[in-house]
Protein: 4-hydroxy-3-methylbut-2-en-1-yl diphosphate synthase (flavodoxin)
Amino acid sequence: MGYMCMRRKTRVVKIGSCLVGGDNPIVVQSMTSTDTRNVEATVQQILDLEEAGCEIARVAVIDQEAAQAIKKIKRRISIPLVADIHFDYRLALESLAGGADALRINPGNIGDKKKVQTVVKACQDKQIPIRIGVNAGSLDKEILRKYGAVCKEALVESAMENVKILEDMYFQDIKISLKASSVMLSVEAYRLMASKVDYPLHIGITEAGTKDRALIKSALGLGMMLNEGIGDTIRVSLTGNPVDEVWAAYEILRNLGLRNRGVELISCPTCGRCEINMIPVAEAVDQAIRTIPDPLKVAVMGCVVNGPGEAREADVGVAGGRGFGLMFRHGEVVRKVPEANMVPELLQEINRLREK
Ligand code: SF4
Structure:
């Protein structure tokens, strides 16, 4: 791949089998939307996420029953599992006992120092990292009062307070996230954070909205940060199926030359030269290729005049004619197919390439 971003130098943290930070590939994360106490549904969603390429899954642990579910879930999944906990240190301990590979908990919210120490000690014993997750929507009241409003300094100060609590207990297996629904606030906060510590950063734009909106916000926010070398794990968060988050994360990473998973679709906007009903063709191809992990380039072009040439870098493609389509490979036309067969024939070509 030609273009590569310069990564920020970070410490390496181990989350289960997954190495995060340093020169390790940027890791794709997601979070389940199921009730963690419903083990069946949660396992199924994590298996779906795994199949889509998700490398770390996070689950919300809201009570003891959810914490106890960790053990049952862990047995049936392959990717590392992060237990997301607010306030209650007992949930952290139970999750650790169940085999959680990391905790997302803010030590500042646990309260009593002894309780924090108990959690930190348990993490130290098992070499389990802690992700400090600061969220603009739940900033510490003291900090909010100090700054008067949510701002990058407030987010970073809140994270640093939590970092200090852990460092004072000689704990440095830390990952940090600073989430806000504003793209620019998130980017500025992460930039500031990156200038202060060398812990790996989990980046994302939170509460980013429904699918299309979240994709735009995430592509912008994550794109800017990744391009500056910031970010060791990423999550695209959207109101919808988390499997879509994983697909979108790989699209963002591929476009920046940082990971290379999945099929890239090149399709033209069509113009007055197009003589086929092209949008449904492109949509059908898009749907069919989304689950393919191979790094291929596939093109769907509106006309035979410019199509193959415009999509020269595609491994395989189809260009519309009048009632037919031309199949092409690397810009060279290989055969003619009836319009009605364009989609299945293109998919067949893709399968042939995958088998090679
Ligand atoms: Fe127009 Fe053909 Fe280019 Fe598509 S490939 S935009 S139909 S000229």
